[in-house]
Specification:
Elements: E1 8-12, H1 17-28, E2 32-37, H2 40-49, E3 56-61, H3 67-80, E4 86-88, H4 104-126, H5 137-141, H6 155-166
Parallel strand pairs: 1-2, 1-4, 2-3
Helix pairs in contact: 3-4
């Protein structure tokens, strides 16, 4: 975890439950965590609890169903904390209703939180970041002219990532493993 010391992580749904716990653990190991959630009071309380840890927690009230809130949050993060290195898309809601009992408003709220909010946050977190080009022969076949600022990964980097995923305990499932060169 040393390589993450002082890096910026964004955790959505950070005011309670899994998001709060992930935020605590990341701050405990030295990351600067921006917690996004609607409940400003709980975010502030969590910030107070984490004041003496090695990292820092930044609460930012954000409604993940509102694109303008998400955009404002990421603009603030870039201007006040720094570039995002880690994004934990944790915010989510569910409705305990059958399809025939649900309302259009309920479905829109679930989709706006669980899908649209996640997509907007992901888009904002990865802007201007290397898409992870790998220095292989396929790049020359495809005439991929990679700008100099997009450093290429080595094939060994990808192989190491694969070994990492395979080396996780059996109860851990890695669904996405995105890597890029710093």
């Amino acid at each position: 975890m040393e390589r993450w010391l002082g890096k910026v992580a964004v955790v959505t749904g950070a005011s309670d439950g899994i998001g709060a716990e992930i935020s605590k653990k990341l701050v405990n190991v030295g990351l600067h965590v921006v917690g996004l959630a609607r409940n400003e009071e709980k975010l502030e309380k969590l910030c107070g609890e984490l004041k003496s840890e090695s990292g820092r927690f930044y609460p930012f009230k954000t409604d993940m169903t509102k694109e303008e809130d998400i955009l404002k949050a990421f603009q603030w993060i870039e201007a006040n904390v720094g570039p995002v290195h880690v994004l934990v898309n944790n915010a989510g809601i569910s409705q305990n209703k059958h399809l025939f009992e649900g309302s259009t408003e309920m479905w829109k709220n679930v989709l706006d939180t669980n899908v649209i909010g996640l997509c907007v946050a992901t888009r904002e977190a990865v802007k201007s970041i290397s898409p992870g080009f790998v220095d292989t022969e396929i790049g020359s076949y495809c005439n991929m002219n990679v700008p100099i600022e997009f450093a290429k990964l080595k094939v060994e980097d990808v192989a190491d990532a694969a070994l990492y995923v395979l080396g996780t305990p059996g109860h851990v499932q890695v669904y996405h493993n995105t890597i890029h060169k710093d």
